[in-house]
Amino acid sequence: MILTKLSKELENLSKHGDGELILRNNNNVWHLYLVRSQLLYSTGGIHPVRRWERALKQHRPSWNWRSESSQLSGSRAWECQLLDRGFSEKHLSLIQAKFVIRTVVQECLFELSNCSDFTSDWKPHQNTLSTFSRVVALSANEIQSVLATAQQIQEEWEDAGLNKLNPNLAPILLESAHGQLLPILPQYLNGKSTLWDISSGLEKSLAQVTCSLLPLVAKGVVKFQEIPDLPVPTAKEVVPVTRPISEIKPTPLNQKQPLIACIDDSPVLAHTLRKMLVSAGYQMLSIPEPMRGFGQLIEHKPDLILLDLLLPNADGYSICKFLRDTPAFKDTPIIILTAKNTKIDRVRAKIVGATEFLGKPPQEEELLQIIHKYLRK
């Protein structure tokens, strides 16, 4: 099946860096943007702008996203730029952004599931993506969940015998419909809303909405018609939303930017810390799961480590002791970050080899002072 093939395609790309998977079928093209094997966004196919607006109406209806269009650049997908801006301007929460991405990806995958086959190309990206992009991108487990949902929608559509219909068609009520009992409100039958739009607005399944209209189509009361996509936001050549670290704070050619590893499972804290550190001229390596990420620590050899005490399936004190017993990190400064800021915790942290102890969430000025204190040595 097509989605199974796509799942394997995504799995094969898990060892690649940031990039774009381009899928083609006849005249349709889809673009799937990946960040370290995680799926950030998908677009293309039929009505990508309607799809985007539909997802926002569902999860963040109060955001006037077109007002942000003047800030777009031509450097990367406008949807990804708007997700960045939506979060930075506090129009979107992390959870809302995740839901928008999931909804859009599900619809793209549904479209792909109805293709007989597709060809694929991989285009690596060299530009630096924002920290926010790396936080909201769908993990391997989330990708499988979205694939399963798309498959379920497709199977329901097929079981209802709707294979020859396109959900991007818009139903329109004809003049001969006077006195007819309508299964949905007439406002949805003005030829301006697609079956996808109606399904989302009524919070009913796509197959259920479409099947309810088929008897009226058979009577000649309603007909389906093609409608165009909404206008694409205009990109302007302005300063990109996301800038490479080197542009945020220039670093002399003979001076290496210190790398700081953050071992913490909170994506929100990781995002906050990255903003603090990058603006101060540091690089940051995020490690949400310490044991799985140990190879990354060995590979990159950070100049300083920020370590949370409460970690999934791990104890921060044990991790600190483990790092101290590892020759590569014998002398690396390890700053404990935790909300458990008691005298006993501080003593225990010192016993296992912690360099410093900092309350959580850390204050920017205090954090940077401590980092500077140890890295300038």
UniProtKB/TrEMBL annotation:
Keywords: Phosphoprotein
GO biological process, one term: phosphorelay signal transduction system
Record domain Response regulatory: where: 259-375
InterPro entries in the record: Bact_response_regulator, CheY-like_superfamily, Sig_transdc_resp-reg_PatA, Sig_transdc_resp-reg_receiver
The keyword Endoplasmic reticulum is annotated on this UniProt entry: no
Gene3D superfamilies to which the protein is assigned, alphabetical: 3.40.50.2300
PTM-bearing positions, type 4-aspartylphosphate: D308
Superkingdom of origin organism: Bacteria
Protein name as it appears in the record: Response regulator
Source organism per UniProt: Limnofasciculus baicalensis BBK-W-15
